[in-house]
Amino acid sequence: MYAIVNIAGQQFKVAKDQHLFVHRLQGDEGATVEFDNVLLVENEGKFTVGTPAVNGAKVSAKIVSHLKGDKVIIFHKKRRKGYKKKNGHRQFFTKIQIENISI
């Protein structure tokens, strides 16, 4: 059984006991969150497609940890002008574990 669910503006294919990195979610570590914007559910070869979401379908997950991603370096330069600018960015992520998919 798997489902396609919209989490924080991104679509993910999730299955039970799967670990997933998503954009930072509100909540403490160990808390349970539910996502009700389920777009598709597959159960033993039977597909349920929502228009746009499946009615009554929910995906519950547990927040494992909050962490930061790898550093991305942004470098701007204009040749022969002496213009250089260097920036860095680290995205905040939340690691979740899918506990249950209910229809």
UniProtKB/TrEMBL annotation:
Q: Does the keyword Ribonucleoprotein apply?
A: yes
Q: What are the recorded GO MF terms, alphabetically?
A: rRNA binding; structural constituent of ribosome
For this UniProt record, the keywords arranged alphabetically read as follows: Ribonucleoprotein, Ribosomal protein, RNA-binding, rRNA-binding
Question: Entry's Pfam families?
Answer: Ribosomal_L21p
Under the heading InterPro entries, the entry gives:
bL21-like (IPR028909), bL21-like_sf (IPR036164), Ribosomal_bL21 (IPR001787)
* SUPFAM superfamilies named in the record: L21p-like
Q: Which GO terms describe its cellular component?
A: cytoplasm; ribonucleoprotein complex; ribosome
Q: Which GO terms describe its biological process?
A: translation
Functionally, this protein is described as follows:
This protein binds to 23S rRNA in the presence of protein L20.
The UniProt entry's sequence similarity note says:
Belongs to the bacterial ribosomal protein bL21 family.
Q: Which PANTHER family does this UniProt record tie to the protein?
A: 50S RIBOSOMAL PROTEIN L21, LARGE RIBOSOMAL SUBUNIT PROTEIN BL21M
Q: Please give the subunit comment from the record.
A: Part of the 50S ribosomal subunit. Contacts protein L20.
UniProt-recorded name of the protein: Large ribosomal subunit protein bL21
